[in-house]
Amino acid sequence: MTKVSPEVVERWGRALQEHRSARGMTQTALGRALGVRGTAISNLERGARKPSPENLRLLDSTLRTGGQLERLWNELKDSGQLAWLGKLSELEQEATSILEFQNQLIPSLLQTEPYAQMVIKAVSPWKPNSWVEANAKARIQRADRFTSASSPVMFAVLSTTILTNPVDSGPVMREQLAHLHDLISRGRVAVQFIDPGRHPGLVGPFKILAPASGPEVAYTESAYKGQFVDVTAAVAEFKLRFGCLQAEALPPGRSLVLVSEALERMNDE
User: Is the whole-model pTM more than 0.85?
Assistant: First the structure.
């Protein structure tokens, strides 16, 4: 029998609570519909009790989820972990779409290796070159998989700071901008630039990944490490935030012109 971690049971319980709340049902009402006490529903939602196959079918039917709770439980149980909270590289490969905002740097999937090395070295100057090179190579492997494939589709909103106050003004940045220009021109990624100021991007860099199956996931960056967010309401807020950023940003055509102009300035220097 597959061992199920407490984290998995708790995550499934949160999903049950979200579906129940969306239907406007109390724990007592849901319990009555299933022929159990309300405390049984509370135990499921708190992760104190695992759902049985019969529970799963009854819950999906009563809450009209379209089988989502049973599919989610099977996915989590079979993997032994939160399937969509795995490695970022796996999520990126399996996603059908990626929405990303960056306020200082070119998104990792769009980076060149010299640019990646420069950025990684800049944020961790105490690390040995071997560590920097290994991390840059791993990042570029992800980027190569993305650029050589036709999916996922990617929409990025970037701050114009990346162009007007670049982290480098030499050949590394010129190569990076040329690469970005090529990806945009080929239609591999849609990029919109937004001027710095008061906008929803002040929260910092983030991306939203939509897998082929399962719920959308947000990924936020910090000085320590990235954090995955899978709570439905929180992911919805990130999507709303991204939509607001797109509304304030320049259209893709004008954004491509900005990249061309930045390249021309660097070539003239």
Answer: no
